[in-house]
Specification:
The chain is mainly α and 619 residues long. The protein has 27 helices and no strands. Helix 12 (221-253) packs antiparallel against helix 13 (258-283), helix 17 (365-377) packs antiparallel against helix 19 and helix 20 (442-461) runs antiparallel to helix 22 (471-498).
Length: 619
């Protein structure tokens, strides 16, 4: 008879005794006698064999017969109570029931204790994903046992999963029998004690321990970082395996009672879950923050946010309201900490007070630090979107809408996280504008700005910042790079270009030509000598500047050179006036801006002899 039908029989009106061929008392007496034989066999107080042998280990068939026998005894007792609540046969049945419950209590404890490996959360989770829900083993009929039913579930079940399934079903059959017999408390107490110790041990082995805020404050950053890494791994294992496995096991063993399921899982897991979600909240209270702290905080936020559906599902019971609220509070604290750390980072940018100009107009350390930081932050764009939500752009400093609107033709505002990161870049660029003023040479200040903005644009283009700021943002700032580079060329080389006649092909007197060559030689050597230490780290920008300078200078000089070299060929010591062939000018320009080092200032005069040889070859 199915379990639910049996229960309804127990608690509903029993069939009229008049319908039975024998008297109820006689029939129930036979049930008690049959139960007595099997129960006494496994009574540890009267049988040495029963004291050292496990019923479920010795014979699974007999174990389920034992449970079936107890269920029949319980049914008989209900009928006997309705006839005569003080009859001898009822007293005898009650004594047998106590002996049977004591035996099942022992079996329940032994199965839980000796099968920890088969009831570990990973095995239970795997088992749950492979097998569909099955009816209680207390429903088995004589024509088949649990082994037979499991075999029909599919040959793909591994041996470990098979053992795990058997053990879980054994526990469920005992639990249902004891609960229906009024001994649920004894069964539940054993379960809670054993399984809670397993959860607590697992949490400890995962490196999650109870800490105070003051204790974290005293820790070295290396230790804190190690604990953060442990926690990130711990929450993944705890949610996906540990608590999931415990919930599945609890739901299966105590499927007969929702209230018992909730009570057991709550007592087993609540303390460990609270401890798990407490650590990140204590972490963000640590006042001594390293630059990497924001990334650890974002990782912690991500770990909780990504697992939130599982957290809500696992801890869905009303008794876990405090745990869910604790996790949400921790998530809120982590988000608040990230916002605070980014504000502190902005303050660090604005307070940077380095006074020494970067040699050669190269990349400022602040540029490297800020862009590395922001490009890493962009990897957490999804989480940052949650943290910043719809918060307005910073208002503590005036800022052009240029930095905050993705497109002038698009009325859709940029996401808050995009606005926030664009603002931090703007803070950097404003700071770099101030750093550029440290150079005495204005042309070098523009080269410095071009180099640093180029690095900013390059970092944006090659990281997730590109998707946050947009291609138009990149295009606008690339245009500014070209403007800075053009200003450098104009101010750095204008004297060289203006030293040549406005019309280099125009015929002029030899004396005028000599003066123009002298002036060009002087201006070119001076410009080259000064700018031979200038650098352009970005290869693309370096080639563009070189090409632009060559296009402006070499063709004009070549025209002037070709027009006047013949007229001056007969003059004594002509090499004193015509020191550079056009290809020499191009070669010198190609040597500029190399980060690995350029020719020294003496190179111009040293190579003038080769220029003379080259010039003679052109005659």
């Amino acid at each position: 008879m199915p379990r639910k039908g049996m229960r309804s029989f127990f608690y509903s009106n029993s069939p009229s005794p008049s319908r039975s061929t024998a008297s109820p008392s006689a029939a129930m007496a036979r049930v008690v006698e049959q139960a007595e034989a099997l129960i006494m066999k496994w009574d540890a107080e009267t049988s040495a064999y029963a004291r050292v042998t496990s019923l479920f280990y010795e014979s699974k068939r007999e174990a389920y017969d034992f449970i079936k026998c107890v269920n029949e005894l319980q049914k008989a007792m209900h009928i006997l109570v309705s006839e005569n609540s003080s009859s001898d046969i009822l007293v005898r049945a009650q004594r047998l029931m106590q002996m049977a419950m004591k035996r099942l209590q022992k079996e329940f404890y032994q199965i839980l204790s000796t099968n920890r490996a088969h009831l570990d959360p990973e095995s239970v989770s795997t088992r749950s994903s492979r097998l569909s829900a099955r009816s209680s083993t207390s429903d088995y009929e004589d024509d088949g046992g649990p082994e037979d039913e499991i075999r029909t579930a599919g040959d793909s079940i591994s041996e470990v999963e098979l053992v795990s399934t058997n053990v879980m079903d054994d526990l469920r059959s005992i639990a249902e029998c004891m609960i229906s017999s009024g001994y649920g408390k004894e069964c539940v107490d054993i379960y809670k004690i054993i399984r809670k110790s397993i959860v607590d041990e697992a949490i400890y082995r995962l490196g999650v321990e109870k800490l105070s805020s003051s204790k974290i404050h005293k820790m070295d950053w290396e230790i804190v970082e190690m604990k953060i890494k442990n926690w990130l791994e711990a929450i993944k294992i705890s949610i996906r395996t540990l608590f999931t496995g415990e919930r599945i096991l609890c739901d299966h063993v105590f499927a007969v009672s929702d209230s018992i399921r909730e009570s057991c899982f709550t007592e087993i897991s609540k303390e460990g879950a609270t401890l798990l979600f407490e650590f990140p909240r204590l972490l963000v209270s640590k006042s001594r923050r390293s630059p990497d702290m924001v990334f650890r905080t974002l990782a912690a936020y991500t770990a909780i946010a990504d697992n939130w559906p599982e957290i809500e599902s696992l801890f869905s019971f009303e008794s876990f309201t405090a745990v869910r609220l604790h996790a949400l509070t921790t998530l809120s604290k982590l988000g608040e900490s990230v916002r605070t750390m980014l504000s502190e980072f902005e303050s660090v940018i604005q307070k940077n007070s380095s006074k020494s100009p970067v040699p050669g107009g190269g990349l400022h350390p602040l540029t490297l630090e800020v862009m590395n930081y922001l490009s890493l932050l962009a990897d957490y764009s999804g989480v940052l979107s949650d943290i910043f939500g719809d918060s307005p752009p910073p208002v503590n400093s005036p800022s052009p809408e240029f930095y905050f609107e993705g497109s002038e033709s698009d009325d859709t505002p940029m996401p808050a996280v995009s606005v926030r990161l664009a603002w931090l870049i703007l803070c950097l660029l404003c700071k770099l504008d101030g750093k550029a003023k440290q150079y005495k040479d204005v042309s070098l200040s523009y080269l410095f700005l071009a180099n640093n903005l180029q690095h900013v644009v390059s970092k944006v283009r090659t990281s997730n910042l590109r998707y946050l700021l947009g291609d138009e943002w990149i295009s606008k700032h690339e245009y500014k790079v070209r403007q800075f580079a053009a200003n450098y060329e104009r101010l750095g080389w204008c004297h060289v270009i203006s030293s040549l006649p406005e019309n280099p092909k125009a015929a002029i007197l030899p004396e005028e030509a000599k003066d123009s060559f002298r002036k060009f030689n002087s201006e070119f050597e001076q410009a080259y000598r000064k700018q031979s230490s200038y650098i352009i780290p970005d290869p693309k920008l370096r080639d563009e500047v070189k090409l632009s300078l060559a296009r402006k200078l070499v063709p004009a000089y070549q025209e002037f050179y070709e027009t006047n070299r013949v007229a001056l060929a007969t003059i004594r010591n002509v090499e004193m006036f015509i020191r550079f062939a056009p290809e020499d000018v191009g070669n010198y320009l190609s040597d500029l801006f190399d980060v690995t080092g350029t020719m020294n200032s003496g190179s111009v005069s040293v190579s003038s002899s080769s220029s003379s040889s080259s010039r003679r070859r052109h005659r």
